[in-house]
Amino acid sequence: MTNLARILEGRRGDRADVVGLHGEDGRSWTFAEVDRLAGGVAEALRAEGIGPGDRVACYLTNGPDIVFFLFGAWKLGAVPVTVSSLYNASELAESVVKTDPQLLLVDDRRPGVVAELATLSAVPVRAFGPALPGVAALDWRHERLVEAVDVDPEAEACILFTGGTTGRPKAVSVTHGGTRGSLARLARVSTGTDGESTAAVDAKANLIALPLFHSGGQHSLLFAFYVGRPAVVWERFGIDRLAELMQRFRFDNFFFLPTMVFDIVHAERDLPFEGVKSVLVAGQAISWPVRRAFEERYRVPILVNYGSTEAGHIAGWNGRDMKAGLWKPGSAGRVYPGVELEIRDDAGTAQPTGAEGEVVVRSELTRGYVDDAEASRELVRDGWVHTGDIGYVDEDGVLFLVGRKRDMIKCGGFQVWPEEIEDALREHPLVHDVRVLGRPDDRLGEIPVALVVREPGGTVADTDLAEALVAFARDRLAHFKTPRRIEFVPALERSATGKLSRVSPAGSPGGDR
């Protein structure tokens, strides 16, 4: 039962005629139809010479077709390499070089990129839809009953690219067994049982809000099918698109990135959150002002889930925790049952309760980075995944995060965490968004600098507002945490997965304070 395709085959067996997949364009498929179309993909890939362990890259617009591709590849024991459809030709070619797939699947949405790729890569290319100039179509749109092959739990299941907030995205290899174990843990926390198909046959659909090239999107899809819920897959997040789908499907829960919650909070229109029991947020920390604004506006609690592409689901809160009064403000959540977690210092020594250090988790989810052997050795050591997050666990087994190891700013010998400064500055009414990073300083080593997006319509001059923001932060933070410089920018750079970048833009204008 290790093969991830067996999840879909299980739903074909126990709820074949239930609609399991919706497209935003009104199309829908039963679980049995999804399984048979995945079988059509498997047969078509087999005809191309693809077999167990072979990597197949996809550069496809987010939508239902990627669902058929994923399960079709898994049925063969092949390894999907999901490349962001936002990449340009050089980024796509770089991804292909890193992962060495036997085949690349594309669609007709970005023909210029596909045409340019021919000069950058020699990997065979097939169109997953209509044929393109010089690119033959993969003939897969036939329903076929194909049973999944057996795979080892440690077999490579997929290659996903990390968000890349501080550098170039890395290609992460995840396993069949590790992924299933992560799904079972989340099911145990969410539903009280780690068994499959626990949802009622008439359960509401889950919106797969994150793209399927993202680990969060894939886990959301797999989790929906694991518990037996239908999935709604769209092209991309947007307020108007979200509102229309909420009216149509009456979702009872959501899984969003913090950036999506930010956009919802700042949208002029009200969204129909009636009937929504909770919103789960993961991917990166959500700021307190954004969280509070959302909960006050819509009266829907935000739950958090802490994990990563490399380590899986680690900690979080669920509705039962909230009702039982276990929730603690500012925390990442209770460490999930079955998760082996330690807090370690720089020497690798496990720290006692309440002491800060790097969050390290024993995990079978990842085999490391396929494109960076040195980084893989740093990531996984003796079966323990080093997350790069700094935090501590209290006496109740609740995890608190204080920052990213590589994002920490050393200012005059003091440790400064950007997130703490960002949360303070977001409280100011003229700050729309903010990102704090470290800049070299001859005297202090590094100084915290805040990149600020102003709220629209303000009349305060940049120099005056910069001075006011420094004073605002100084009233709320220790002196060494106060940003030494405010730089105003029109927007903050985001990665392909929606995370805000920690990379400093060159030549940013701003005022020194």
From TrEMBL:
GO molecular function: acid-thiol ligase activity
InterPro entries, per the entry: AMP-bd_C, AMP-bd_C_sf, AMP-binding_CS, AMP-dep_synth/lig_dom, ANL_N_sf, ATP-dep_AMP-bd_enzyme
AMP-dependent synthetase/ligase domain: residues covered: 12-369
Stretches assigned to the AMP-binding enzyme C-terminal domain: 420-499
Domain of life: Bacteria
Protein's UniProt name: Acyl-CoA synthetase
Species this chain originates from: Dactylosporangium sucinum
Organism lineage: Bacteria, Bacillati, Actinomycetota, Actinomycetes, Micromonosporales
